[in-house]
Amino acid sequence: MTEADSALPAEFALIARHFRPLAGPGARDLIDDVAVIAPPPGRDLVLKVDAIVGGVHFLPDDPPETIGRKLLRVNLSDIAAKGATPLGYLISVSVPRGTPDGWFAGFAAGLAQDQQEFGVTLLGGDTTSTPGPINLSLTLIGHVAPGGAPSRAGARAGHGIWVTGTIGDGALGLAVAQGKLADPTGYLLDRYRLPRPRLGLPIGEIASASMDVSDGLVQDLSHICRASGVAARIEAALMPLSPQARGAGPAWLATCLTGGDDYELLLAVPPGREPALIAAAARAAIQVTRIGGFVPGAPSVDVIGPDGLPLRISTAGWSHF
Amino acid sequence: MTEADSALPAEFALIARHFRPLAGPGARDLIDDVAVIAPPPGRDLVLKVDAIVGGVHFLPDDPPETIGRKLLRVNLSDIAAKGATPLGYLISVSVPRGTPDGWFAGFAAGLAQDQQEFGVTLLGGDTTSTPGPINLSLTLIGHVAPGGAPSRAGARAGHGIWVTGTIGDGALGLAVAQGKLADPTGYLLDRYRLPRPRLGLPIGEIASASMDVSDGLVQDLSHICRASGVAARIEAALMPLSPQARGAGPAWLATCLTGGDDYELLLAVPPGREPALIAAAARAAIQVTRIGGFVPGAPSVDVIGPDGLPLRISTAGWSHF
Q1: CATH classification of the domain holding A20
Q2: A-chain residues within 8 Å CB-CB of B53?
């Protein structure tokens, strides 16, 4: 700390120590009030904000390293769902007074690791105290070819329903954290704490509708149905489950289908483009699975059970109110 | 509410009812996960995030109408300080479960009013519950001519120190809210609750350094001194005080100089450009006042009292840690 810094309030020293090393081009070293960037010419901007709250979205004893990374990754997942390239982010950090310096160090170290992995930098931020739990908000900025970001409204009867990765691990990981499920390898808990944003697929050229699965597969699929005016029919037997999720047993299937925190991509894909998806996913080393298709009808999600009969599943996912 | 909406969790109905009417172009009616906008061609983007917390930045009994407007305006003030044009914003809203619908209605109504006044629209948001106090974070996006946003580092000895509007009203308004000061007309409390972002000045063509005064004039001026490597000398007698601030009496002068919540612009202006500032301010109907000048020397802020002698004033402003 320089002599000049020592005359400043603790807030500025904290920003200089932990957050300035994360700052990228345009961030003005976090010593100005704003970031200034030249947007990539000829590209649309894709913008997303998500907030997480201690005791609601993460657990009080979650390590600070993974809290920051999870927040960044849930936003990256939304950017990935639109086939966009992430650029940078701004973050608000509200923490109780007396939060130890080591918490900030861990939080920033986690972000630094993910900045490297995903090619983004910090553009700006705000730190405040709060009498409540930790409250973090992150705004992510990405870019995409003009018109290249699918909405939720383009799914049509006959289009396939595809997901990336495996479904349900995040929700099972939460159950592990709550002591309701065993997880000898730690795989499920890790999936809960660290989503895997599926960046790198040419979504805009492939999907007629897309989103990421954050509030539960069935609920999120119902959003596409509603926006697109179609019905969806998916088969539990086709669901990509991790070995760990299969190991949890059939009693946990409903949790996998309706629980949150997947952060996998959910895509509507016209039949003619399914080969392109498969090829692109192979190049990006991302698992993709066709779990069903859209059919004519009023917006609804039918889940066919392993026995070929419809499963009764509530479409209600996670809601805050 | 449509039949389809009634099947959705309360969170979505709340967003549709209160926030969708605020959504502008690119927001995709807040039913997609992201906003997609084409940035103004040939312009730099100016980005800013600020968070406010109940009990820290606003008072529990502040009306929800002004809470949202204050949050928007403190961010607009930063954009104004860089001579940028505001475009749109994303917002995170964390509120306790059971927050009445009327609170959201008032909050959104305040934002709607300011959207009209300042020409911005909502691009995206996130609503979450929190076991703590209300926590709001807003990311504002504006644009400016390439290279046109001054930093804090360009002030040089001989440049004038200018401020817009009046200084101290916000800090006095807080004292009013805390019952420490009388405010028969309600002017000071209103200044505390509703900053006046000074948009519309061609800052980039005029100022060698600029910022807005949010943490107290003396502290914020010390930031420019430190970044620019100069000393500042301001005169209390030149300070633009509102009639209400003058009425509070000389005992409140230090509060005016060091208290936060001014949200006026603080500009370093080379002598040759002072006429341009005066002319532009007259066109924009914004009061501007020269309160002193930068002088050679180690970074410091000297305040000359009404008697011509230096005032002892702590440079410490508001800090969160």
Answers
A1: 3.30.1330.10
A2: 94, 128-132, 135
